[in-house]
Automatic annotation (TrEMBL):
Residues 22-201 form the EngB-type G domain. The keyword Nucleotide-binding applies. NCBIfam families: GTPase_YsxC (TIGR03598), small_GTP (TIGR00231). This is Probable GTP-binding protein EngB. The gene is engB. Belongs to the TRAFAC class TrmE-Era-EngA-EngB-Septin-like GTPase superfamily. EngB GTPase family. One of its GO terms (biological process) is division septum assembly. PROSITE patterns: G_ENGB. One of its GO terms (molecular function) is GTP binding. The keyword Cell division applies. Keywords: Cell cycle, Cell division, GTP-binding, Magnesium, Metal-binding, Nucleotide-binding, Septation. Its cofactor is Mg(2+). It comes from the Bacteria. The lineage of its organism: Bacteria, Pseudomonadati, Acidobacteriota, Terriglobia, Terriglobales. Pfam families: MMR_HSR1.
Length: 201
């Protein structure tokens, strides 16, 4: 079960290695309303991610520690850290990520030593969005490992979904997009196995 660590609104707030035991960190990134908190909820099976939606925390990076086991068997050292980043692109699609995002996001992506994988969420129900392309391009340029997941896959039929995934891959210039649904749990097991591979690395 997850433990909420803290809500960071400045570089100086980021949890230290002593606090995270230096375990790999997974960052979740996406436009507002893409389904980020729903995905985190289905991954960790709790309402913990709603913490991120409470006022004052929506423009923060919210850190969670995930532990294997429960109760007495629960280890002190977490297996993974989740970092839930603020949603972007709500007000105006044309606005660039950097002008809209709090200034501490870029230092986080550029410098966070324990950041092992960025999960980029894109909505399979809408056309490819320029600000998503911008984020993915930034991650490629900074050589950050990333995995693009296509959210809300339950809302469209198999054929429409395949076409949407193809268009997203083409526009964002990525080899893989994993379709997922927080509603039906489609793709969630596959995503977990990718996260565990990072944890065991
Ligand atoms: P966030 O702003 O990225 O955290 O997005 P939320 O998780 O709050 O979801 C935004 C909206 O999309 C809500 O109305 C959710 O119920 C809906 N939603 C999220 N994930 C899914 C999904 O997998 N399937 C469907 N059908 N709706 C979803």
């Amino acid at each position: 079960s997850p433990v909420f660590l803290l809500s960071a609104t400045d570089v100086s707030h980021f949890p230290t290695k002593a606090k995270t035991f230096d375990v790999p960190e997974i960052a979740f990134l996406g436009r507002s309303n893409v389904g980020k908190s729903s995905l985190i909820n289905s991954l960790i099976g709790s309402k913990e991610a709603h913490v991120s939606s409470t006022p004052g925390r929506t423009r923060a990076i919210n850190f969670f520690a995930l532990h294997e086991g429960a109760g007495e068997k629960k280890k002190i050292r977490p297996t993974l850290i989740f970092a839930d980043l603020p949603g972007y692109g709500y007000a105006k699609i044309s606005r660039s990520i950097s002008s809209e995002w709090p200034t501490f996001i870029e230092p986080y992506l550029a410098n966070r030593e324990t950041l092992a994988l960025c999960i980029c969420l894109v909505d399979t129900n809408i056309p490819p969005q320029p600000n998503d392309t911008q984020l993915i391009t930034y991650l490629k340029q900074s050589q950050r490992p990333y995995l693009v997941v296509g959210t809300k896959s339950d809302r469209i039929s198999g054929n429409v979904l395949s076409k949407s995934i193809a268009a997203l891959k083409r526009e964002h210039e990525v080899d893989e997009i994993l379709p997922i649904s927080a509603k039906t749990d489609a793709g969630i097991k596959t995503l977990w196995s990718r996260l565990m591979a990072v944890a065991e690395d």
